[in-house]
Amino acid sequence: MKVPLYLRILLLLTLFGCGWLFWEDQTGSPDTPTSPAAAAPGVTTPPTSEPKTTRVAEPGTVVDVFPIQTWRPPPAPSVVSNPIPTPPPLPFVVSAQWRYQNQAKIVVLRGNGNHYTLCNQCTVPGRIRPGGMLDKDYRLDKLTDTRVVLTYLPMKHVSTLHLGTYP
């Protein structure tokens, strides 16, 4: 196969260019200055204000050039949240309930070492009507035939105590 003349000339120029670059790389050693200002005798360059510092590992120490990498996302930051305060469990249980002479239901609750008589309209001594207080933390809101509604006042939490369906 015959190569045209212009390609031979380009190949020859490329060969000379590669040889010249190789020769330049061999003659420039780290000890010889490469900048023209440093190569000229009698010309001084002003010193730089920041000296170059390089970290050199101590001899005999192993440097991990390629540390282990992972694709996993970083752990989520822990969220510190204050738990929502909950009221204590209802300390009252139904001890007794009855009707007296076709009146509204009368309920007796037992809790905190005391007995509380709850009614809407009765003449029982020591009775508690809706709006009255049981201990210092509970208020009787509503009394029906099927439930007792109490409010825990420190948190304004409404609790319902269901009554049995006795006649």
How much strand?
Answer: 15-25%
**Major sheet strand order:** 1-2-3-4
Number of helices: 2
List the uncertain runs.
none
Order of helices and strands: HHEEEEEEEE
* Approximate shape: rod-shaped
Into which percent range does the helicity of residues fall? 10-25%
Main β sheet profile? 4 strands, mixed
Mean pLDDT: 81
Q: Radius of gyration, Cα only, in angstroms? A: 48 Å
- The count of β-strands is 8
Q: Termini separation (Å)?
A: 119 Å
3D architecture notes:
- Residues 29-55 are annotated as: Disordered.
- Residues 29-47 have a biased composition (Low complexity).
- This protein has helices at residues 5-27, 36-39, and strands at 93-98, 106-111, 114-118, 127-128, 133-134, 138-143, 147-152, 157-162.
- With 167 residues, it is an alpha+beta fold.
- The chain has a domain at 93-162.
- The strands form 2 sheets. It has a 4-stranded mixed β-sheet with strand order 1-2-3-4, with no helix packed on it. It has a 4-stranded antiparallel β-sheet with strand order 5-6-7-8, with no helix packed on it.
- Strand 5 and strand 6 (138-143) form a beta hairpin.
- It is rod-shaped.
